[in-house]
Amino acid sequence: MCILESNLRPSTVLIQAIEITKRFGELCAVDQVSLTVNCGEIVGLVGADGAGKTTTLRLICGALKLDAGQIRIGGYDIQQQTEEARAQIGYLPQRFSLYEELTVMENIRFFAEARGVQREEWLPRCLDILKFVGLAAFTERLAGKLSGGMKQKLGLAAALVHSPKVLLLDEPTTGVDPVTRQDFWQLIIRLAAQEQTAILVSTPYMDEASRCHRIHFMREGKIFIEGTPANLKASLSGSILEVRGEPLPLLRQLALEEPGVLNAQRFGDRLHLRVIAGKSTEISAALQKRAKQAGGKITALHWVEAQLEDVFIALLEDERRGRSHSR
Amino acid sequence: MVNSRLIALIRKEFIQIRRDPRTLALIIVIPIMQLFLLGYAATNDVRNVPLAVLDQDRSSAARRLLDAYRAADYFRITHAVSSERQLRDLIDRGVVRAGLIIPPNYGEKVHSGKPASVAFVLDGSDPTVASTALSAAQLIGQAHATAILAERAQRQGFGSNLDSALEVRTQVWYNPDLISAYFMIPGVIGMILYALTSILTATAIVRERERGTIEQLIVTPIRPIELVVGKLFPYVVLAIINAIEVLVLGAWWFDVPVRGNLGLILALSGLFLLSSLGIGLFGSTIANTQQEAMLTVWMTLLPSIFLSGFFFPLEAMPKVLQWISYIFPLRYYLVIIRTLLLKGGGVSALWEQILALTLFGVVIMGAAARRFRKRLD
Amino acid sequence: MDEVIRVEGLTKRFGDFTAVDQVSFTVQRGEVIGYLGPNGSGKTTTIRMLLGLLLPSEGKAWVLGYDIWRQSEAIRRQCGYMSQKFSLYHDLTVEENLRFYGGVYGVGEEIQIQATLERVGLAAQRQTMVSALATGWKQRLALAIAIVHRPQLLFLDEPTSGVDPTARRAFWDLIYELVHEGVTALVTTHYMDEAEYCGKVGVMRDGKLLALDTPEQLKKQVLRGLAYDLFATPLIEALSFLEASPLPLRVGLSGDHLRVILPKEVEPSCLLAELQQAGYGEARIEPVEASLEDVFLALSGK
Q1: Which of A31, B258, C154, C221 has its CB 3.0 to 4.6 Å from that of C185, i.e. a possible disulfide?
Q2: Which residue of C has its CA nearest to B12?
């Protein structure tokens, strides 16, 4: 049992996937993916649609059979000791469905009983969970009459009803508003911090990924970057330059002509330039000068912290460049 | 009406039909299958009914009676039995469907000119077979009796012109051999036009909704009427091809007569298509998935078939069902197509049906188009 | 004419439910407006009214100078729409899809079809069946369909959800290229990453347009404060402590740290001092750039 903060103690590995692979015919949906999640940790599986996130989660919860590799949940092998391993897992699938014609309490009771929670245990446990997700006042309401955010919380409650040590969340906040999303993440972070639950969450959103303790970027079935958000962002420190001014198309053109500028992206009222680290001052000066000559105006030019999106693109471009060099 | 938008829509629809060879093959093959199935299997014709004979007379007159039964292919004499118990046993076990009992004094009575009688026993568990067999048995018996009378009269020297005075000539018009296929195949044409068009139309439109492509279509300048016509046109073409396919096959393979004017047949089939397309379109405005659309149309299909006189004569049904049958367009079309193929009548004989179909088509199309426009909102 | 959209008091009710409530705004030529809000906040209903697919319950609006009540045909001809679901026929090739939609808009010339394919970078895939395309390519085809008739105004409904950042950037490069040529774009999204690309962002919630301005202005004016990341352990206890403190405008959990919005006049060191006094000795605070999400939460009263 781990009670202390994970960074103070050698942490306990609750999810361990070793080189797992899943093929669907020709397509290799998950290709030698390895990852670990420790207790009290939130790990993000980030990628576009079709990158292999959902398949990875389904492999980890034992809903799909592995073609190769090994998965251990709290020490139990998902293939050999499926029952024991599954008892540790709470899983919130992407399209979580509730029984709309049952009340909140009837729904949660059903999921508790389906999970084999004992008769004398389920009522206090359900009340606890509903209180935790903020639905304690709505036990008698029909699930069909809940708002989108409340349905999602009920889904989370259903996944948590058997007190799992491991929580798998598949794109839990797709399509909900930021307020609901914020509430939802407060719950997840509390679970990790207070209950020491190991949480693996898939998401296509970069801003959501930045809330995880560690991130695995997935692409074409492979994990191609991993690290903590802070480390990933730091890898690009000093290389993102924000430019404001007008006209932006002209400024972008000028920037792209400048040697040392790797790319220039327009974001509404500003440009973000990615430049070769160390060439910063040079480039700023040159750009200011050339903008003036061309009749443009730069009103602001300064360094900004890299976003995860910048990191993703930079690493992908580096990888491509590396690939073409090696040819 | 014919503009680039409409042409684009129709071209796209045909490409999609072509891209789905399995469905296309089904559309072509299903009518042929149904035609053969209903042309052969679902026949009311009674042929070769197994017959057991209890001949207690064994005279030459009895043998001649049996020969008369043998000559007509309604019956096949499969068993000769020696007691009524044996006969009952055979019928009970279903080995034979009918029994003919010739009493011991039959030959004597025929010979002496007294009224002779034979008993004909029938298994009535299948009423269709039983009633046909019964009338066949009576016909054969009567014909034979007439022959005996004529023979007797001749022998007694009344001359040969007497027989015509005694003979009861039955005559069946339009389908003299009472071949079921002649009755069934026009029905199959009607059913195919109805089922295929309404189901294909409904699913084709719902598919756009399911895929989300309707969303893109409604923001284009396309008008609802163009969308409807563009979506329906390819299926009208397919349905007409199907109808011609069944007609040609029916005439060539089953020798169904085509007595009416071909142009009129096609024109009135087109009128009927208005109704089935309307039902398909209406179904598509109710349903959200292709499955739902299919089921919705199916729900109208079964009563259509049973209440249109496709299998069973409407006259034999309870009054309430007869009234209900008036709302099914297939009912009117079956009268039209059977009349045109078998009797060769014209518009004057069919104006009631034509009026009813026009009315139905206009109402259902109008209702569907109204709903369709609303669903675009 | 530089005003592309003018909306005045637009309202749409479905029975008792008000989907769009007294919305007013204008859009100038060449702008990229993000319409940010969760599903069901009234974004799609607004667009449908602008395209004349739904009649408003109240209010007036003009699109490209045409009245939405009476001239929706003219509006639809000059607008492009790219739906979230991409609206493609999976059993047609790339080229056949584009030709079909081109035909529907009355674009018969093959040159324009091919030019559009070139423009979105799909020329090499023209014979590919749509069902075999990856999401990123489908998205480009959906854009091609929206621009094949050279519209002046583009409506994009969550155009880059579900694609990876590389594809998203390439997509926005294309949008800005079009904008440079005079096209105006209205983008609806519930997606913060996507809204960051827009020149102006309107925040929609429960049918009301809460604010509409540049991301920079929104962050300055709506937040009424500055954003900080605060690291302290134990995290949850630190959160409770700060929630009780009168200093921050908002505190929330954000991964392994807290996100705090402090009023401009409050020095972050004050907060830090408070924390250290309460026993969070290792606490540290770092200024960060506010995100649109912070703006959204502030507008929602959180």
Answers
A1: C154
A2: C100
